[in-house]
Amino acid sequence: MDLYYNLSRQVRVDADNNQISSKPTIYLAEKPTWNIHFYSGDPGSGVTAVDLSDIVTWRAAIDNDWTGSTDPICRTISGIDQTQAADGILGVPLNANTQRCASAVEGKQSVDATFELRGYDSNGTVVRIIQMDVIVHNTVDPSESHEVPVDLSQTTAAAGDVLDGKKFFSAGGELTTGSIQTVTPSQSGNVVTVPAGHIDEALTITVGTAVAAATITPGTSDQTIAAGSYLSGAQTIKGDANLVSANIASGITIFGITGSHSGGTDTSDANATAADILPGKTAYVNGSKVTGSITLKAAATYTPTTSDQTIAADQYLSGAQTVKGDANLTAGNIKSGVTIFGVTGSHSGGSSMDFYKCASVSGPYTASYYTVSGAGTSDCNGRYDKVSGQSYYAYTSQNSGSTYYLFYQGDSWVIATSTTIEDIWEALYYTDWEDPTQMYTGEGESPAPTFTLTEQAVDQPKTWTGYKATLSNGKYTFAGTATSGLEWTTVKPVVGAIYSEDALIRAATLKIEIPSSGLVFYAPLSADSATAQTGQTLTAGGEGSITYATHGGIPAAYFDGDAYIDTSIGTATGTAWTLSIWAKADTGADNRTAWAAAAGDPMLWTGNAGRSTMEIYPTQGEIPDSDQNSWAHYAIICCGDDNVRIYVDGIQKASFSSSGWRNYSLNSFYIGRRGSSQSPWKGRLASVRIYNRVLNENEIAALASEFQPSA
Q1: Over the stretch 187-223, which tens digit does the pLDDT of each residue have?
Q2: What whole-number distance in Å separates Cα of residue 502 and Cα of residue 479?
Q3: Among the listed residues 75, 84, 13, the one whose alpha carbon sits nearest the alpha carbon of residue 45
Q4: What is the pLDDT of residue 304?
């Protein structure tokens, strides 16, 4: 019998997770198996099975009196089927054919009782208790194929049908003793006598010598099968179709056939031709002499190539034909995945070859730095160098030790003592947007003299950094810290792609299995579809359009700057969740939202003008080492360890307290905008996933390896 139970609300439900009020019934003397399906979530919200594979053992019982003074109506200590526990299904065998069950329902049609199921961990500790109201019925429903007590009126055995000393109940209900006696067979010669009765020991009787199946070929002397033998297999005496008179010499009799052959060679049935006989050799065919003319093939050696080489038929090999072998024809010397002459290669480029996921690329280009001079506060005059992975420049005064920051905000160059400046009025100095040489203080006053901002260049080498790949237990993971000092020559690495150390080999197949546990939303965005792969409705909106094509090796959707997708998960994730998305914004697409919750926060966007990095709002701001105009994988992990963590291409780039994010339980959200038509995305998006749990670093690395962007 199949039963369904909602663990989240501890109520009975039907197969579609709708709450029901009926109680399961078990009948006196019945021995059913209850297949119990466990669901989670609110009743009516759809079917979500509960994974029970972490429970080591289960026990079950039914009783109407849990005071502990009596045995339960029935109890199951072992034999519970856990083979489908990962899918939320347990098979619980029950036995209501007990004295306790009979006494519980005696004089009653039925009694109310409780079914209890307990799960234990490896230490024998109870980790889960499940209770369900049931009914124990006094009669057995014959329509349900339950076990029915035996009707003695159907008994047909008599004492002579039962062994001596064994007891049984007769059709009249009387206890009767059997009378069949135990006997012993006896043998005299080849005669075996078996008296009437019961034989309680096996008796082996051998009659003659066993002769297995055999074939006898007639010869010049007799071959005898001994008398008294037992033929366990057929004895076949061979015949021969050539045993005819014409094949036996005249006057000789073989097996009763007298020969008629008078001697000489009979060539009437010969069929050879000159082409079947070696040159210069002769033979007689049908009484005529034939001289051979077969084509001769001298010794030859064949070296395998990409094409077949054929030794023609109808010729005689006067010399050996040798097909060359090569000791180097081994799997380790053949490219992985390629088969040559039945040998499948395993060579992947050398056992010492390492692979890296590109984190950054330098050269060959000319990098800029800026020199500030003539500022009102001379302490901030000096050379401002680019801060790695950031969009701003920094200078540390040799006089005071103070660090000043130079960055472009809106339409103005700003000098500040902090990178978290929110407005140019908080800056130390800022320039007039029409005249970068005209400088103002943070209060808007124009100091004298004006300062000079000079851009200068410095050549950079061809170098790159990458996260080293390591293969373990059949899966690849990437180091959390990038290896620097890698060099490239002819192939310039693309950030996020995987290369050999010299960047000459690109690995397009270093993929890890995409995690599926906890996946509540997945929209590939690889083709126009009104439905996500996880079943949710995708509603396109806006005045613009969304088109679909492969770009840089990634099947993606292109949002033209005035279009978006509105959707929802269906059931809120709770405060522990993970967002996974691939994004690439168009150049100059500032203040554009790739993804945002329906309430507006949190969101992933390109930020203000003049910045090249992606941003997270609220709290974080710019994501270090990100490039909004290049394909990248972004992952946001909320609240697993009281922190929000941000990953770019599988590598953690930021972490901050989740105190401001604890209220962000995801359900409805937008792809390609924020709020009501705010900041619509302009660029490409792909493969949007949401999980209702916190993913680990290996799982993030798997998602980041889903694609290997080429541009």
Answers
A1: 776 577 878 777 766 666 666 677 889 898 998 898 9
A2: 18
A3: 13
A4: 87
Cα dihedral across residues 639, 642, 645, 651: positive or negative: negative
Structure tokens at 495: 């950030």
DSSP string, 569-586: -SS---S-EEEEEEEEEP
Please name the fold of domain 519-704: Jelly Rolls (2.60.120)
Residue-wise pLDDT tens digits, 87-118: 999 999 999 888 888 888 888 888 999 999 99
Which helix or strand (DSSP H or E) is residue 34 part of? strand 33-39
Domain ranges (residues) in the chain: 2-144, 353-374+457-510, 375-450, 519-704
Torsion of CA 161, 166, 167, 168, to 10 degrees: -40
CATH code that applies to domain 2-144: 2.60.40
pLDDT higher than 50, residue 350: no
Whether the predicted pLDDT of 532 surpasses 70 = yes
Q: Which amino acid is at 521?
A: F
**399 versus 422: which is more confidently predicted?**
399
Q: Does residue 625 or residue 710 have the better pLDDT?
A: 625
- Rounded Cα distance between 33 and 94, Å, is 6
Please state the separation of Cα 426 from the chain's center in Å. 53
Give Cβ neighbours of residue 631 (< 8 Å, ≥ 6 apart).
Answer: 496, 552, 554, 582, 583, 584, 684, 707, 709, 711
Q: pLDDT digit string (tens) for 139-188?
A: 655 444 444 344 556 678 888 888 888 877 676 656 688 888 888 887 77
Beta-carbon contacts of 632 under 8 Å, excluding residues fewer than 6 positions away, are: 495, 496, 582, 583, 584, 614, 626, 648, 649
